[in-house]
């Protein structure tokens, strides 16, 4: 019986270690991929100010911001917290 518990614990520790390492790798890789996508998607104006291009990007992002804002409002209004009992 003790051998089976010890083996189960060893397997659980091994799998949790593997999961932790994989999650860490995915976190780092996701950050790299998101960075590449954002750098390619949004121009770097640097010292050159192309106002027309800035307006285009702002007009493109405005609806995205509105959708995110509404999602946060809906999510917050849907959460009611713990209900008192008694």
Question: Can you describe this structure?
Answer:
- The structure is a single chain.
- It is flat and about 75 Å long.
- The two termini are 46 Å apart.
- The mean pLDDT is 84.
- It contains 2 helices and no strands.
- The chain has one domain (2-78).
- 0% of the residues are buried.
- With 86 residues, the chain is mainly α.
- It has helices at residues 2-41, 51-78.
Q: Mind telling me the C-alpha Rg?
A: 24 Å
Give the CA-CA distance, first to last residue.
46 Å
Number of DSSP strands?
A: 0
Overall outline: flat
Q: Return the average pLDDT rounded to an integer.
A: 84
Number of discrete domains = 1
Low-confidence stretches: none
Order of helices and strands: HH
Q: How helical, in percent, are the residues?
A: over 70%
What percentage of amino acids are in beta strands?
A: under 5%
Number of helices: 2
Derived structural class:
mainly alpha
Oligomer: single chain
The largest sheet, given as strand count, sense and whether it forms a barrel, is:
none
Summarize the structure.
The chain is mainly α and 86 residues long.
């Amino acid at each position: 019986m003790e051998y089976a518990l010890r083996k189960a614990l060893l397997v659980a520790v091994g799998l949790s270690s593997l999961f932790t390492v994989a999650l860490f790798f995915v976190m780092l890789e996701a950050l790299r991929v998101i960075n590449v996508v954002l750098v390619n998607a949004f121009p770097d104006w640097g010292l050159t100010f192309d106002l027309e291009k800035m307006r285009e990007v702002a007009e493109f992002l405005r609806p995205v911001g509105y959708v995110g804002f509404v999602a946060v409002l809906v999510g917050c209004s849907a959460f009611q917290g713990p209900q008192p009992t008694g």
